[in-house]
Amino acid sequence: MNPIRFFLKPFPGEGNPAGVTIGGSIARRADTLSVRCEVRGDLSKLSIPAAAEAPRRQDRLWEETCLELFLGTADSGEYREFNLSPSGHWNAYRFTRYREGMREEPAITSLPIDVRRDSKALLLTAEIGLGKIVPPGKDLAAAVAAVIRTNDGGKSHWASFHPASRPDFHRRDGIALTLPGEG
């Protein structure tokens, strides 16, 4: 399991009014995907959802500050979207192809997120069980992205690569990290 490091940048033209940096790592070990994402800077400028007493599956997390993860395989148009909120709430969706057939992924029934924060850093880590959604020998195509809200109502879209003229994390050409299958 060699982690792949990633660094996210805001969509061109949206800027970085909070002056933060976003980076982390993603790694695959057998049927487990490990994701670690760190937002650094003056977090007092960000709108960060408060920690939930009982984190649960929740819709529309992308409307607030949220980490997003996209996973697919090379031989299929089908892909998954995972939303991880600093509140601890989460969701996992399955798409049959580009932005079509969206439904909650029934194979993922819980997704514990470890969230740590102080005045200068927000760290989210998660371990996602892949066994029920991806065969072990299949290579994964992955992308990590983030939606960042500021206290003044601003919003920016972050990704390693922005392949379109507007923010769109679902585009297959943006899901560009390769995580080899074992076997």
List the helices and strands and how they pair.
Layout: E1 4-10, E2 21-29, E3 32-40, E4 66-73, E5 79-84, E6 90-95, E7 103-104, E8 113-117, E9 121-129, E10 140-149, E11 155-159, E12 177-179
Antiparallel strand pairs: 1-2, 1-11, 2-3, 3-9, 4-5, 4-10, 5-6, 6-7, 8-9, 10-11, 10-12
Key terms for this structure?
0% helix, twelve-stranded antiparallel sheet, 183 residues, mainly beta, 12 strands
What does this entry look like structurally?
This protein has 183 residues and is mainly β. 0% of the residues lie in helices and 43% in strands. It contains no helices and twelve strands. The chain has strands at residues 4-10, 21-29, 32-40, 66-73, 79-84, 90-95, 103-104, 113-117, 121-129, 140-149, 155-159, 177-179. Strands 1, 2, 3, 4, 5, 6, 7, 8, 9, 10, 11 and 12 form a twelve-stranded antiparallel beta sheet that branches. The protein is globular, with a radius of gyration of 15 Å. The two termini are 13 Å apart. The relative contact order is 0.25. The mean pLDDT is 93.
